[in-house]
Every structure is written in C-alpha cells, then in structure tokens.
Specification:
By secondary structure, this protein is of the alpha+beta class. The chain is built from 3 helices and 8 strands; from the N terminus they run αββαβαβββββ.
C-alpha cells in the first residue's frame, strides 16, 4: 500500500512501527531531503487509502509520517550517500567510536576524513566496512 505512493519519487522507507493501540509511525527519507510538504502529501494519501480499505472500521487509529530525525542512526547506503560532506560518528562493532567527515560511501564501505592533528589540521582517510558498523549518527554542527 505504501510502496506505490513512493514510486517515481526519491523517497524511501526507513522504518515502520505499528503499536497495539493502532498507532502507526512511518519514518521516511529522501535522497534530496524529506521536508514537511513531502510528509504531508504522503500522510494524506496513505490516510485516504487506509480509510477506503476500512483497515480500521471504527476509525480509531493514528498515523504519523515523518523523517527519522537527525539523532537517529543511519541504516541504509542511501542515507550515507545523502550525508557525504557532513560529520558523522561511527561506532564500530569493536573498538572506539570514530568521528570524521564522510567523504565516500559505496556498496562495501564508507570513508571518513578523520582529524589526526588539530593544530596542523591534518586528516587521514579511514575506511570502515558496513559489516563493521554498529551505529552511525550524523553530528550536528553549529
């Protein structure tokens, strides 16, 4: 039901949560950003389909469509690609977290430019395979 609404768009599903209280939360992202207008459009179309199909005959459900939020971990290669140039913190399966500027992402790995000498502003590239990433979060810079 949701997938046809996303055809021919740059929008993709990050996660779907359905609670026993008929609370449906759908987290979406898009290659060019997922703004409020995209969220509202998908929400209205999906709500219309749910009502037409009478999935909740009493109408007692809530539907939330939004982006996952900046503090949520990256889950898909597409999310890494759209965040190239931003600072991210990667927690590997083993070892200490690594913070650096995301410079590359392919099917196997990501590459971060990690600061090794703050005074000289020297950096070094660090490759981390997707298989070794426990968690990756975009760092907010002010």
């Amino acid at each position: 039901m949701l997938m046809p609404l996303l055809e021919d768009t740059d929008i993709f599903v990050v996660s779907i949560q359905v609670k026993p209280t008929n609370n449906i939360k759908i987290f979406l992202d898009a290659d060019d950003g997922f703004d409020v207008s995209k969220s509202t459009k998908i929400n209205k179309r999906l709500r219309r389909q749910i009502d037409e199909l009478e999935m909740f005959p009493e109408g007692d459900y809530s539907l939330e469509v939004s982006s996952p939020g900046i503090d949520e971990p990256l889950q898909f290669k597409r999310q890494y690609l759209k965040n190239i140039g931003r600072s991210i913190e990667i927690t590997p399966n083993e070892g200490e977290p690594v913070i650096g500027k995301l410079t590359e992402a392919d099917d196997e790995k990501v590459v971060l430019e990690v600061l090794v000498s703050p005074k000289k502003k020297d950096t070094t590239p660090v490759e981390i395979s997707f298989a070794n990433i426990k968690q990756a979060i975009v760092q907010i810079s002010f």
